[in-house]
Amino acid sequence: MEETVSRVISDIEDLRGNPEQAPLSEQTLTDLQILLNNSLSDSLYDELPSKNLSPSALIAPIASAMDSSPSHHSLLASDVFLSLLLAPNAPVFTLFTPISFISFLRSLRRSCKAHSSPGPGQDASQNRKRKRAGAGRSRAKNPQNDYDSTDTSSQHDPKVLLRVLEKLVRVMDLIHLDRFPETLRSLIQTVAEIPVTALDVCGNTAHYSKLLNLCSRLLREILKPEHGEPSNTAAEVLKSLSSLVLMAKSQARTFALGFVTSLVDQCDGVKKALVNFPRYLVKKAPEKAEPRALAVDSIMEVVRVLGVEDQIAFVKYVVQMAQGKANLRLLAVDLILNLVTSLKDPLGVESEASEASEAWGMWCLEVLVKRCSDVSGAIRARALSSLAQLVGLLSRGERTSMVLKEFMGFGKVGDVNVEGTMNDMLRRRCMDDKAAVRKAALLLVTNLTSFLGGAIDEVVLKTMGMACSDPLISMRKAAIGALSEAFRTFSSETVITEWLHSVPRLITDNESSIQEECENMFQELVLNRVCRAASATSSCIVPSNGKMKRKSIGNEMEKLFPNGTLYLLREVCHGEVSPWVKKVCTNLGKKKRMNEKIVTALQNIIKVSESLWLSHSMPIEKWTAPPGAWFLLSEVSTFLSKAVDWEFLRHHWQLLDKHEVECEFKSPILHKNASEEEESTEYNTVAWASDRVFLLQTISNVSVELPPEPAAELAHNLLKRVEAFNMHSTETGLKVDAHLKALKTLCKRKASNLEEAESLVLKWINQVLSMASGIIEKFISDNSDKKAESSLFTPPRSGTRKGSKSVAMSKSLSKAVTAIYTVGSLVIVCPSADMSNVVPLLHTIITSGSSGPKLNNLPGPSTSLQREAPSFYIQGWLAMGKLCLADGKLAKNYIPLFVQELEKTESAALRNNIVVMMADFCVRYTALVDCYITKITRCLLDPCELVRRQTFILLSRLLQRDYVKWRGVLFLRFLLSLVDESEKIRQLADFLFGNILKVKSPLLAYNSFVEAVFVLNDCHAHNGHRESHGSRKESQSFSIRGTDEESRNKRMHIYVSLLKQMAPEHLLATFAKLCAEILAAASDGMLNIEDVTAQSVLQDAFQILGCKEIRIPSTRASSESADIEEEGGENGSAARGKAITQVVKKGLIQNTVPIFIELKRLLATKNSPLIGSLMECLRVILKDYKNEIDDILVADKQLQKELIYDIQKYEAAKAKAAVAEAVVGTKPKSGSNHSPDVSKNLTKTQVQAVRQSMSSNELPSDSRVASAMADAAAAATARSVLREINKGTGTPPLGSFSVPKVKSCTGMFNSKNVKRMDVIKSVRKRQSFDSDEEN
């Protein structure tokens, strides 16, 4: 050992003379460590004086080794340094210096980071790569760190690091750092970094856990009073640990949170720092969604361990924070949700403490309600979703739910204002511009519905129904959930109606998950509800004496089937709901999700209704089943045929068949009873007919399960009914179709094989066709004979004879109508049937009264059947249309006749039917109908709303299925539907243009926009926009020509609807096309500006260029980034917005401003009234770019001066006119051309000037007052305009202007009265928008 001591002292002595302190070698450090481990430090200290060395001479070379050596060498030096301090009888105060301790801490950091740098063969993350690059840059600046670069491959034992940390814990008892605050701060920061940087050094979980334990012990040692004031030290420790607390989930974060929460048991100074720590974390919380959520979790971990008073103090802080900046408001909303859900008794219902402890939950709820109307969409969405979660949580307890109801205003009947405020807020949020806000509002409505037991505002209910058609899938899902929850908890008629009209239609949605949700909700809320209601009701009804009215029996039925079951059934068969119900039932049946209980339930409802009717001694011929019961049974029986009771069907078939004949030709008009009985008779007739139709459909569905004999008997009865042709006219179509469908199915059941079945079907079809042809021919002949006979009698015949003849003709007409409809239905049932005998008859009917050719050997009517028998005439066209669908040759001959009749007929019913047939022809014979599409589009302007709506829907479907293309005038004619008189058509048009076409044809609006401007104004004054389709009269009918306010508003609504479909790049291109094809054309003389329609086109162009929908402000991307953040991906949108802004500036430089100036000069020479619209448009355009006006007009400063001066003069004149109108008592019109109130811009100087001018005369007139105020307001407006443009530079009064003074710039030239035509021509030669022409 003496040799070792001598070697160490010799090395230290050699290093003493070196001017630059060199580090101890690794061998010397090893020798020193051996001596210290063997407790031989005393012999070392005894030898040092002999060499004239002090103990402190050891520290300098060791510190140099810790600073500049490789990591393993440096760590060994650190171990030796701590061992020297821990040696027995060591002079600690001599050996310890702040500089040496800083070197030790630097060595400790480097030892952790050096190992964590990934080598070439290691799989490292991007974050570590960035750190490695940063370290490389720092090494380039500090050559002394070159040791680190050579040490990346060296692997030192993690036990050495753990040993060093263990010794450091022991050293903390020997040294006091209260005298060295910087050293203490450096130590705290180093220890806080170790859990993150030393993760790879440890190698396994056991070593890392031990390392975290040592870091915790170190931090606790640091918090002792001998190292400084505990409150200050704790604040520094918590500040250093904040980065760990706010980082992503990891072991380091768990360690930091565990240590921080354990400080609650420390002294008062440490507790004080801990209480302030959550507020510090609030300020350091990131703005991104996921890191912010982790920060909220960390903050709540700390808040939970605080005392009640400290927790309430933090709640107050969060409430105040909710009034701050946007990021703080968003964080406050997140914190409030966690505070209320995590802390105990937020509403103060479980304890009787102070008022503060009772009220803090209310403060939080008030903040959330206020933030639901925040300016930022992201904050509104988070506040609504948080409030929805709190409603769901607080509604679980009885006492908390009572307090919550009182807070929201639903607990007190008299407090209407709060409830109204809540409902108003929900209405606004359900119609918010942001999808995330609407979705959160629907979630809140769902939870409120469950909480309040279904009491829901009708407007909110309607809004939820509209949300089911939202373009976003998540919105539609949320709307389904909200409406279904309302239906589930509250079975009112309004809720049932809204649900049935909104949810079942989603069965045709493109998203399969929405279809499945629709099926699930229908099965739960409709089918299962009907099953439960029917199973809970006994079919046995106690007989009652005396007759009752229908309403009384209906009320009794409502009691037997509660929860709106009967109303639900009635709405299910509604005309707008039944198609979707059929589709839902079909999907459920194909998936085998139908339960036989629904069949039993529906049969039970019908039986109970019949028994109840008979028990009150009511006539059975007036009984009808509950509306919707037979309809739903007919749909479910398709897939549950075995569950239907045949005896039940036979009983009701006999009942309906027996009593229907009695009311065949009875009419409420012939029997003049009381009004109530007339309504009852009419209701019974329609209800019996519909019940019979649905019963026949049910029989047809279950006919496969029928025994052969009942099937044959039923088929015979049905055939007799069909051959009688005496079905009631109100439901002729449905009844005939049901009879024929059931007959066909029964024939297949009766036959033994397919061939026999086909022969049976053809046999009875030919038989029925023969009888129908005879009836039709007889009616045509009788009609001709009657007219011929009546023409022989000059005096009128007796009234009695005429009346009996009329009744006979009515019966004959009804029979003929049924016969001709049956012919068309037979073609659908069997397209291969021989129709050669029927075609001539139908030709005679549809050509009656026309000058067209007649077929030979047919009794043609002398007068038009269209006037004498319109229903028969219309059915003739329908039957011919069905024949044409089955026969292509026939269609080729008769389609032109259909188009001709569509143009000339005055019957709206016939036009509607022909439009439907033409749509079917377009699917079957696309090439034949394509040339007639423009004539079909004329029905979009039909005087009948039904025809317009039907045409719009049918053509939209054909366009979506690509049977018709968007070419020619088709798209331009569809635009008028956006401003149709009917609200339903406008809604359909908005959905077509805003949702369907925006996805299917995104360039359609852009490509046709400029042409639409000319067509809507019926302008033919442009050389390049000559009309090429149709006549001038037809183009006028599809225009909105006129300069009146209504016409301009309609056209502007169409333009705005098209602009909303365009992407930002298309908006830019449309802006350029409007300038090039309209404004530039007008300045070049290609567009005759003296023409009225051309002036209207120019005015529309100015309004479009000045509207907000076409502008792309430079702040668009940044303003929306906060709202997009919740959905993710705001960076791409922001970059795209900046790029578009640059292109907009370039377009303005090249095209817009020169064209505007030249056009303004042209209009000024002609004294055109359009100058005002031009200047207003130009002012709006340059208002968004007032800071870039120098760059936009950099090539011509004189042009810049003229433009600014013109805008200033226009603003001054407009302000003067506005003030003059205000003084004389005339209120200015609220239009887009009016600027804001100029009276607010008057300074004290202008006010004094006004008073002086008014005091010049004792009794000034109104005109003088107006003139004085107008002059002052004009001066104020002019100064404000110039101040904006010159970025705050003051300007002299208006009267001192000889030449407008603008911001000086080098290279400015002055050229007065020089035409700018060369600028215009040069701009037009540039091909900046070639891509637009390609599109």
From TrEMBL:
Query: What GO CC annotations are associated with the protein?
Result: condensed chromosome, centromeric region; condensin complex; nucleus
Q: Where in the cell is it found?
A: Nucleus
- Ranges of residues in domain Condensin complex subunit 1 C-terminal: 910-1084
| Biased composition, class Basic residues, residue ranges | 127-140
Keyword terms of this UniProt record: Cell cycle, Cell division, DNA condensation, Mitosis, Nucleus
Primary location class: nucleus
Keyword Cell division carried by entry? yes
What InterPro entries does UniProt report for this protein, alphabetically? Answer: ARM-like, ARM-type_fold, CND1/NCAPD3, Cnd1_C
- One Pfam short name: Cnd1
Name the Gene3D superfamilies on file: Leucine-rich Repeat Variant
Instruction: Report the GO molecular function annotations.
Output: histone binding
Span list, region Disordered: 115-155, 787-806, 1024-1045
Gene Ontology terms: biological process: cell division; meiotic chromosome condensation; mitotic chromosome condensation
Basic and acidic residues biased stretches: 1024-1035
Q: Carries keyword Protease?
A: no
Compositional bias, Polar residues, is annotated for: 142-153
Protein name, entry field: Condensin complex subunit 1 C-terminal domain-containing protein
User: What organism does this protein naturally occur in?
Assistant: Sphenostylis stenocarpa
